[in-house]
Design brief:
alpha+beta, Endonuclease, Chain A, 5 helices, 4 strands, 16% strand, disordered C terminus
C-alpha cells in the first residue's frame, strides 16, 4: 500500500477513535461517573487525569500521562474467558507503550472507593519523577504571573 494511503488510513482510524471516545464520555457508566468525580480537576493528589482517551489502538477509561498510568474500570463481563484474553492482550500492548495498567472491578470501587483512590495515588507516586510532580500551580512557571516593573 502506498505511503499516502497508509497515512489516510491512520488518520481515519484516529478520527474513529476520537469519535468513539466522545461517545463513551457522554455515555458513562455509574462507576465511571463516580470515579471521574474524584479524579477530575486534579482532585486526587494534584494528579491530572483524562477520561476515555485514545491510547495506542485503544480507548482507556482514565489516563494520568505524567505517571504513564491507565486506570481501567471493569464490570462483570470482563470475567468471561474471551474478555480476559482480550484484556490481557490490551494490557500487554499498553505496557509495551510504557503505561502501567491498573484494573479495578466495579464492585471494589463501589465497596471501597477510598481504598481504590489510595492505590491509584501509590501507583502514581512510584511512577512520577520528582520533577514532574504537581507543584500546586496550574500554569508552568512564568505563565500568567504578574510582573512588577521597577519604577524610576
Amino acid at each position: 500500500m502506498p505511503e499516502g494511503q497508509v497515512r489516510d488510513l491512520e488518520i481515519g482510524m484516529a478520527d474513529r477513535l476520537t469519535e468513539t471516545a466522545r461517545r463513551l464520555r457522554y455515555h458513562q457508566t455509574d462507576g465511571e461517573r463516580k470515579l471521574w468525580a474524584r479524579l477530575r480537576d486534579r482532585r486526587l493528589n494534584g494528579l491530572k487525569f483524562r477520561r476515555q482517551v485514545p491510547c495506542g489502538p485503544y480507548i482507556v477509561d482514565f489516563l494520568c500521562e505524567a505517571a504513564r498510568l491507565v486506570v481501567e474500570l471493569d464490570g462483570s463481563q470482563h470475567a468471561e474467558s474471551k474478555n480476559v484474553v482480550a484484556d490481557n492482550a490490551r494490557t500487554q500492548q499498553l505496557n509495551s507503550l510504557g503505561y502501567k495498567v491498573m484494573r479495578v472491578w466495579n464492585v471494589d470501587l463501589k465497596a471501597n472507593m477510598d481504598g481504590v483512590l489510595d492505590q491509584i495515588v501509590d501507583l502514581a507516586a512510584h511512577r512520577t519523577s520528582p520533577s514532574s510532580a504537581p507543584s500546586g500551580h496550574l500554569l508552568p512557571s512564568g505563565e500568567g504571573s504578574v510582573r512588577q516593573e521597577s519604577r524610576k
